[in-house]
Amino acid sequence: MNRHLISAGDLTRDDALLILDTADELAQISDRPIKKLPTLRGRTVVNLFFEDSTRTRISFEAAAKRLSADVINFSAKGSSVAKGESLKDTALTLEAMGADAVIVRHSASGAPQRLAGWVRGTVVNAGDGSHEHPTQALLDSFTIRRHFGRSASSRAAGAGAGDGALDGLRVTIVGDVLHSRVARSNVLLLHTLGAEVTLVAPPTLLPVAVGSWPCSVSYDFDAALPKSDVVMMLRVQQERMNAAYFPSVREYSRRYGLDAARMAQLPDQAIVMHPGPMNRGVEIAAEVADSARSTIVEQVANGVSVRMAVLYLLLGGAEGDS
Amino acid sequence: MSGTWLIRGVRPLGGEPTSIVVRDGLIDSIGAATKPAGAQVIEADGLIALPGLVDLHTHLREPGREDAETVETGTQAAALGGFTAVHAMANTDPVADTAGVVEQIWRLGRQAGHCDVHPVGAVTLGLGGARLAELGAMADSAARVRVFSDDGRCVSDAVLMRRALEYVKAFGGVIAQHAQEPRLTDGAQLNEGEMSARLGLTGWPAVAEEAIIARDCLLAAHVGSALHVCHVSTAGSVEIIRWAKGKGWRVTAEVTPHHLLLTDSLAASYDPVFKVNPPLRTAADVTALREGLADGTIDCVATDHAPHPVEDKETEWDTAAFGMTGLETALRVVQQAMVDTGLLDWAGVADRMSRRPAVIGRLAGAGGELAPGQPASLTLYDPAVRDTVNPATHASRSRNSPFTGMDLPGRVVATFLRGTPTVLDGKIA
Questions:
Q1: What's the average pLDDT block by block, 10 residues per block, for chain B (429 residues)?
Q2: Rounded to two decimals, what is the model's pTM?
Q3: Domain residues of chain A, as ranges?
Q4: Rounded distance, CA A37 to CA A321, Å?
Q5: Complex ipTM, two decimals?
Q6: B→A interface, C-beta within 8 Å
Q7: Which CATH number fits domain B4-48+374-385+408-428: 3.40.30.10, 3.20.20.330, 2.30.40.10, 3.90.1150.10?
Q8: Backbone angles phi, psi at B99, to 5 degrees
């Protein structure tokens, strides 16, 4: 496995399965009264967030703390960054403080890769611009695995088969693919794990070169529904709503929103996912978000386990554990 | 320093070895058997003689951004690249939109003395795209401006572009357009295609360049004026220009060295040294640009030398400045992309890097033949050596060369400006 986690495309199938299996083991910690392992004791993990994202930041923070790492939260607002400090100078500062891992969220695509060139520690991409969000894709695959009986525990119990990958599962990702780092990472990782991915969006919200991606593309949500084991809804950003990507929020919702009627077209076993935060009533109806098929709250819980696994494996936690 | 020079064993335009005698600023003779009295001798076995190169598109950054480049350092870089004339783009601070500013730049060039500096005048006041600058005053100034451009920005208003094309007919000027439809490129970062989709960078679609070129060709034809298209970067643009030239319209075009050699796949590193406007395109575009330059659809190579200080490039991709240095690598890149591939011979290189840009720039004393009686502005070039590009050795004040670490052929050994060496043995004379 690489020293950094920048792109889901950097993970081999074996890498991805190792992370997911490790997350399965670590998830059991979360069920204990004392949710803590000594693995990363003495290690420093910096949460470097140039964009507000409370949910992702606290997920990483919880993951690092459950592994006993020292966590420093560095938020760009009100810091030297707001006073014009460059990314490079921020990186050198963190380096001087001895950060073993830097978890970075940035509005610019590629910022984590630039950072990795300036620090010695491990860099974990917590979402960069419209590029990638690899731990989101990992937690999504983790969630799918559990629901379709392919996790390590269900395999051990004889309930699932295979190596824990997602071969043959049909995943439909719906919404603003053009600007979505969640979509990019999911297409790459789901493909690596053997799932069949279909992107559904208005043509304005697909990259012009989407044909080169390892997935199929449709403009017709209704046609894709009966052929979906998983439907993953993407958030529609407020700024897209006034930039002629679609005529109106209501039209978008009618054509690409998941409401109860559409949910009824799904196969019985199908689940509904959303990376959050949701626009209820836009891309997803409240009754769908709150339905039994929805895994949205579960995704949040799984996020901590998957991020624990990533930090554990990238920081060489196995050595400290022995 | 002018004096008499005997350049022995040199191959004019890559032809048979001969001797060139330079005297009193002119080429005195070609093929002399004996050394003229008092002549200094350059042993030039294996070197090619080219007419001094002319760059239609250089950013010298002075006045305003002397931290990136000055007229002194930029013209040193030009001389080391084999250039004897450069056109200094107008996007300085203050903008070169008055006779006063263009004369200042012209005088700085004369003082530096490393090559001729021909200021380009802004088309619109402050590059604002709203009102014409005083084009006539700049044309009548000591700088004798003939090329006008808002480069860095597109003259996107069709009426303003029409008026500019019409107006410069009065003094034989040309409008050099930076073809970029602004609405289609709002926030654009990288060629729109597979790479931009994968990297999550806002796309810069080819159509944003091609639509403006098509419109401007039609406008130039309508008003009977001369259009020059800056830094053509797409296969579609080559097609449109080929069509316009086929109609007999007065359209000329340039291509940069980097668009002849590099593709958008380099952006995968997110290193902004590869960020440029127009962006690096695809391998298919590179092929079309090379073919267009070879068949003359594209008239010339122009560097778009765009120096930037380190701090403007050591950033995230989105916030980095657009642009690459190019003066000191241009001829070497052209050898790699055009000569070593068999697309152009050295006479062709002389045509595309000296004669034609001099014609487009309306320069009387540049781009001439290598013949007795012509001004002795020439470049001696060794095509047989190779070297790794290291911008730390460049005279340019900036280091943003996209060719850093690349192995490229060739070395400029000497440059003469009207009989005076500006470069000898690869160093500023």
A1: 89 97 96 90 97 98 97 98 98 98 98 98 98 98 98 98 98 98 97 98 98 98 98 98 98 98 98 98 98 98 98 95 98 98 98 98 93 97 98 98 98 98 97
A2: 0.95
A3: 8-132+301-321, 134-295
A4: 9
A5: 0.93
A6: 192-194, 196-203, 205, 269-271, 311, 314-319
A7: 2.30.40.10
A8: -60, -35
